[in-house]
Amino acid sequence: MTIVEVLKLSADYLQKHGSDSGRLDAELLLAHALKVRRLDLYLKFDRSLGEPELSAYRGLVARRAKGEPVAYLVGHREFMGLDFEVTPDVLVPNPDTEVLVQRAVAIAREAEGPVRVADVGTGSGCIAISVAHYAPNADVWASDSSPEALAVASRNAARHHLSERVHVQEGDLMSGLTGEFDLVCANLPYVASGAELPAEVTAQPARALYAGDKGAALVARLLTDTPPRLRQGGRVLAELDPAIVAAITELAGRTYAGHRVHRDAGGHERVIEAWF
Ligand SMILES: C[S@@+](CC[C@H](N)C(=O)[O-])C[C@H]1O[C@@H](n2cnc3c(N)ncnc32)[C@H](O)[C@@H]1O
């Protein structure tokens, strides 16, 4: 079978087994199995595949069809134009989070001098590292309660030559971080316990997904705890599920001088920005 034939068959198979991006998944997995770039598949569409190559690919497609995220199968994922190592110890970086990073980078770049940024619940480090990459005046402290996640974040900081400006620290929310910050960013768990989720989501660590109070508990605790940790003019940016926007904006209205909600590329209310 040729590359083009294999891609057609496997894309259809994945689509039938619950993937809403069957063709893309098939291409990413085949490129990984053949150890080539995705673009190379298009340059060699008519190349025949041998049995060992097909067998490795079939294994990956079978795992994907059972719900394993592509990023865990290939070991990395693109986010904000950067490539991040991803393992089952961390949430797969999600494009919905890019609106938070874009706003964080804009805030950091508007500052005249160096800025101190915290990324709370850093996981793979995708927020902390993207902010440090696109805002060279930012020094970023990245915290997580999971040492396994922090090991991945440290490797990603080194991968992007940012270990000197991205400092990882274990702890509950901001408890392991010292000093005050110009900007506190967070994509914390916000799924209500007991919510029905697709296999691709439940394959990710439960500590990265679920929070009490119908999903609002951790974001609410962060917003309540953060004011004394902000410098004059400091801001907090936290990712939300649309289901918790009402509870969180009500809390922000009581705790902060001002707040606004940013929408993601799909038009959903996704990020709260709050300030004094
Ligand atoms: C939704 S994931 C986000 C990961 C990453 N920031 C991203 O955007 O892809 C949430 C992360 O928060 C961490 N976490 C959960 N509860 C926490 C807590 N109480 N304190 C610190 N980190 C926590 C989890 O280990 C997980 O890595």
Short summary:
The protein folds into two domains: 3-66, Helicase, Ruva Protein, domain 3 (Orthogonal Bundle), CATH 1.10.8; 89-275, 3-Layer(aba) Sandwich (Rossmann fold).
Structural summary, described in words:
This protein has 276 residues and is of the alpha/beta class. It folds into 2 domains: 3-66, Helicase, Ruva Protein, domain 3, CATH 1.10.8; 89-275, Rossmann fold, CATH 3.40.50. The protein contains 11 helices and 11 strands. It has helices at 3-16, 22-34, 38-43, 51-65, 70-74, 98-110, 126-134, 147-159, 199-202, 217-225, 245-255, and strands at residues 76-79, 82-85, 115-120, 138-144, 166-170, 181-186, 191-192, 210-211, 230-239, 258-263, 269-275. The strands form 3 sheets. The chain has a 7-stranded mixed sheet, with helices on both faces. Strands 1-2 form a two-stranded antiparallel sheet. Strand 1 and strand 2 form a beta hairpin. The N and C termini lie far apart (63 Å). The structure holds S-adenosylmethionine (SAM). Residues 90-91, 93, 97, 121-124, 126-127, 143-146, 149, 172-173, 187-189, 207-208, 218 line the site of S-adenosylmethionine.
Q: Give unreliable regions as ranges.
A: none
CATH-wise, what's the superfamily of the largest domain? Vaccinia Virus protein VP39
Mean pLDDT: 97
Query: How big is the Rg?
Result: 20 Å
| General shape | elongated
Layout of strands and helices, then pairs:
Blueprint: H1 3-16, H2 22-34, H3 38-43, H4 51-65, H5 70-74, E1 76-79, E2 82-85, H6 98-110, E3 115-120, H7 126-134, E4 138-144, H8 147-159, E5 166-170, E6 181-186, E7 191-192, H9 199-202, E8 210-211, H10 217-225, E9 230-239, H11 245-255, E10 258-263, E11 269-275
Helix pairs in contact: 1-2, 2-4, 6-7, 10-11
The structure holds S-adenosylmethionine.
